[in-house]
Design goal:
- The complex is a heterodimer of chains A (141) and B (129).
- Chain A is mainly beta.
- Chain A is built from 1 helix and 8 strands.
- In chain A, 4% of the residues lie in helices and 50% in strands.
- The radius of gyration of chain A is 19 Å and the shape is globular.
- With 129 residues, chain B is mainly beta.
- Chain B has 1 helix and 7 strands; from the N terminus they run ββββαβββ.
- Chain B starts with 10 loop residues before the first strand and ends with a strand.
- The chains are: A mainly beta (141), B mainly beta (129).
- At the A-B interface, strand 4 of A face strand 4 of B.
Chain lengths: 141, 129
């Protein structure tokens, strides 16, 4: 059956926990290319180099009544008193749902930037950006 | 092994050198030049090979060691890929027109780009045999 995916099908899991009140996520993959064009060639040629993955997400700053605030948990990965250590990775799983089927991309990341603000007439939300380290750990997209 | 002339360089720079000339300048501005030889010297050929395989890069190192560094000389055929892209005939570039041969001017520079991929730069000097 034909299927158009929308934000209704999107999910974001951090360290295996599905986040509440996510308004968007995005993922970008890049492949560095190494040029192999040599003298006498008329067209440029390349070989694959290093891959890179990064992305961003926006979570409402929302307390669900049980003191669970996913946005705050993400913010604390960077907004912390101590230094960020090598072990401060988070596993991001970006998901599009189709019935019982999940189309996922999973990557181990460092959260590289966070921002939050408050404005009159606007729901407070946290914007996070993340940078993958190493290879993707799951791709079922 | 021979110089890895089956590889096409990414860039090539050739300098034809000069003849052995000594110049004398008189106080009145006159210049006198004396030619001390009939063949040029100090020809240079700089080649770079970007993003080649480690195996191809290793061929340059092997050849360098076989030439005992900058000691021994070697030729590069005019029909080789070393002169790829040059359409005017390679007799000048490969020194066939001068009777000279090449030797290494300095050790080949090998740079590892990523696993299995290297970039190599070679600088050759033309010397009369």
């Amino acid at each position: 059956m034909a299927k158009i995916y929308t934000g209704r099908d999107g999910r974001l899991l951090i360290d295996g926990t599905e986040q509440i009140k996510v308004t968007n996520w995005s993922l970008t993959g890049n492949l560095e290319t190494l040029e192999t064009t040599s003298l006498g060639d008329s067209q440029r040629t390349y070989i694959p180099g290093v891959q890179e993955f990064s992305g961003s997400a926006t979570l409402l700053y929302y307390n669900d009544g049980t003191n669970r605030n996913d946005a705050a948990a993400a913010l604390k990965k960077v907004l912390k008193i101590g230094a960020v250590s090598e072990s401060d990775t988070v596993v991001m799983r970006l998901r599009l749902v189709e019935g019982n089927t999940n189309h996922d991309v999973e990557l181990t990341t460092y959260i590289t930037s966070v921002s939050i603000g408050a404005s009159v007439g606007v729901v407070s939300s946290a914007q996070i950006s993340f940078q993958a380290t190493g290879a993707l750990t799951a791709v079922t997209i | 092994m021979a110089f890895p002339s089956s590889l096409k360089p990414t860039s090539r720079q050739y300098s034809p050198g000069d003849y052995p000339v000594k110049t004398y300048n008189a106080n009145n501005g006159a210049e006198v030049r004396i030619l001390y030889g009939s063949r040029p010297r100090n020809m240079t050929l700089e080649l770079s090979y970007s993003n080649i395989t480690d195996s191809e890069a290793n061929d340059f190192l092997t050849h360098y060691y076989e030439m005992q560094g900058t000691y021994q000389t070697f030729g590069i055929p005019s029909s080789s890929q070393t002169f790829s892209g040059w359409t005017a005939g390679a007799d000048n570039l490969n020194l066939a027109g001068t009777g000279a041969v090449w030797r290494y001017g300095e050790p080949p520079q090998q740079q590892s780009v990523r696993p299995g991929v290297s970039t190599v730069s070679v600088r050759l000097i033309g010397v009369q045999s």
